[in-house]
Amino acid sequence: MVSHGTPNxxxxxxxxxxxxxxxxxxxxKAYIRVLGKNGDQMLTDEVKWLAVTHKSFxxxxxxxxxxxxxxxxxxxxxxxxxxxxxxxxxxxxxxxVDALGREPFKHPALEGLxxxxxxxxxxxxxxxRTTQLAEKYxxxxxxxxxxxxx
Length: 150
What we know:
- This protein is mainly α.
- 41% of the residues lie in helices and 0% in strands.
- It is built from five helices and no strands.
- The longest helix has 25 residues, at 66-90.
- The mean pLDDT is 80.
């Protein structure tokens, strides 16, 4: 018997059709799960489809999400920073005694700043965690892309 695949990659016929979501109702339901009530009405249909389309889909002829992806990453990083600031403010920093008796400047807006570190942000934005989040909300079922090997 001849094996057509490897243990790591299952065999697929050379001309297999890779199925992607074309159902606008399924896409709307995904936006409602992610954005909440009326989440499907926050964006135009064109932007909704662009946001879930990778440049590998249809060889990039239908438009894809590179610029939206860049903007989305910055928004997610901002939200992660705001979350860190909010949760760090809830846990006060331990008091340090200065040898010269000086007291550092304190202001309510600066309370959570000590907890805002790159390591903490990377922990929140870890690819495994964001992948789990995308799976939880069903985004993997509406993404439009084409794998290299089909």
